[in-house]
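BUG: 3D viewer hangs when loading the predicted structure for this chain

Environment: internal workstation, default settings.
Expected: structure renders.
Actual: progress bar stalls at 90%.

Input used:
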Amino acid sequence: MTKETESKIISSTDSLTRYSDAISRGLKRGDEYVELFTTLCNTQDSNELLTAAIGLTDFQLDSEFVTFPHQYSDEDVQLIFMDRMLQLKQIPRNFAVNEVKRVEKLQGRFKLLNEDNFSFFKSPKNRSGFFFAATRNHQPLFYLNLQKKEVLFNSDALVNYFVVTLEGTETANIKNAVSVLVDFAKILKENFGFKVDFNILDSVNGEFYAFAAGDIDRDILDQLFVDAAKSDYMLMSGPKDEAVLELDHDITLTVMNSGSEDLPKWGALVHDEQQKESWLDLLLDYPFIREWYLRNNKSLAILADSYTFG
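C-alpha cells produced before the viewer hung:
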C-alpha cells in the first residue's frame, strides 16, 4: 500500500468519524430539547417551569446532519408557559390553550369572551421578546421577555381591543379576561422579580396616568364637565386648577397638571379605597368617560413604552 493510498483511507475514516460524531451531537441535542419540553409540560415546580421556558426560547434544535420536522415554535413555548404558570398558581381556569391533535401553531382562548384566539409572536427588536395579541389584529396587548424578566403592557392595544373591539360584550366577562393578564404579570413580579409596567391596568392609588399630549386644551376639560353633568356626576375644580370627579363606591378621578405652566404634564389619578379600579376599569364602567377619552384620544392617550411598542 502506497503512502498516498494509506492517507486516503485515514482521511476517509476521519470523515466518517466526524459524521458519526455530528449525528451523535445532534441526537444529544434532541434529548436535551425533549427533557426541557417534558419539564415545561409536566413539572409542578414554578421555578423549573420558568427555567425550562427560558431554555427552550431560541433553542436551536436542528443541526447539519439531524433535523426534526415537527417542532413547536418559540411563540408556542411562551403560550404553554403562561397557561401552565396560571395553572400552577391556581388562577381560575378562564384561559386555556386550544386542544391540538398535531404539532401546529398554538393558540389560547379566554373562556368568557367571544371566539377570538390569542397567541404570542416574536418581537422584531429582540429575539427573546414576544408580544401577546389577538390573532385577528396582532395588536400587542403586552410584551414578555423571560430572559430579561420583563412584562410591559400596551395602553393603545388594551383600549382598542377590550374597550373598542369588544364593545357590547358583558363588562364582567371583559374584566375577567383582563384579570387573567394582571394575575399572570403579578405572579412573575412577586415570585420571580420581573419588572412589570402595568400601565393602564395599574390600580394602585397614586399611579399617575400621563396623557400623551402633555398639555391639553381647556375645551377638553370643559367637555368632561358637560359630559359628567349629563350623567348626573359632579365635576369640581380644585385649588390647583385640577378637575375632581366623584364617582360611585368612593372612587375619585382627578385630572391634573403634575408639571408646571411652562412644562405642563397633564394626566389622571384614580383613587379607590379598595385599589381595584384602574384606568381601563373606568373606561369600561363609565360610558361618558369612555366617550370623552376616545373622542380626544390624540391628546389623552396614556403613554406606553415607546421603544418596545413603537
